[in-house]
Amino acid sequence: MNMNQMKTMPGGMRIAIAILFFFVSVFFAVSIIDSVLTDYYISTGGVEIDANIINKKTTHNKYGYRYYVSYVFSNNGKEYKRRSLFGLFSKDTEITNNEYDRLETGSVMPILYYGKNPSFNSPKNISITSNKNMWFLLGIIVCGVISLNEFRYFIKRKLWKT
User: Fold this and answer.
1) Domain ranges of the chain
2) How many whole angstroms from its chain centre is CA 61?
3) How many CB atoms neighbour CB 27 within 10 A?
4) How is residue 122 annotated by DSSP?
5) CA torsion 28→82→37→99, rounded to 10°?
6) Residue 158 and residue 152: Cα distance in Å, rounded?
7) Are 18 and 154 in contact (CB under 8 A)?
8) What sign for the dihedral angle of Cα 141, 143, 148, 150?
9) At 86, phi and psi to the nearest 5?
10) By CB distance 3.0 to 4.6 Å, which of 67, 106, 120, 129 could disulfide with 100?
11) End-to-end CA separation in angstroms for the chain
12) What's residue 5's pLDDT?
């Protein structure tokens, strides 16, 4: 059987995959923008405050243990937590094993928040460097290329219904 005789993926499945990969790449892009924007706001107008540790947790995977804390702080009578995706979701803060052992629930941890909008906040001294943005950028490239290629396929063959 040669390449011309092989069956191709049904059109409906191709468009579903294209749309899925498109939305995955958009999610990755929004996540990177949120992270960069938070870092920018804090670097241009960061205010230091002590936040209370409200939760500690560990996770385990094939690479070992990871340590996380959740914190809360007050500003002008309103409580704030660390959040991601422009404040839509709560976010735990990854810390080192030594920091995890040192910090207890109820203890304080220095954080920086953006003075005009405390929803943008981050711990002051994070010892963990995350390469999440690099992986998300790779995800944007891979998923974006796949989705654009599938959209091109439909447009080229005039299978796109308008």
Assistant:
1) 20-156
2) 19
3) 15
4) E
5) -90
6) 10
7) yes
8) positive
9) 60, 35
10) 67
11) 35
12) 46
Q: What angle do CA 63, 94, 52 make, to 5 degrees?
A: 150
Tokens representing residue 79 in the block = 């409580």
Rounded to 10 degrees, what is the CA torsion of 103, 108, 111, 113? 140
**In whole angstroms, what is the distance from residue 42 CA to residue 38 CA?**
6
Around Cβ 21, how many Cβ atoms within 10 Å?
21
The DSSP 8-state label assigned to residue 105 in this structure reads: T
The partner residues of 143 in beta bridges, in order of sequence, read none
**Cα–Cα dist 14/18, whole Å:** 6
Q: Which residue in the block uniquely carries the two structure tokens 């906040």?
A: 121
Indicate the helix (H) or strand (E) that contains 149: helix 132-156
Do residues 28 and 140 lie in contact, with contact meaning Cβ atoms separated by under 8 Å? yes
For residue 6, what are its two tokens?
């092989």
Kindly give the interhelix angle for 132-156 and 11-45, rounded to the nearest 10 degrees: 140
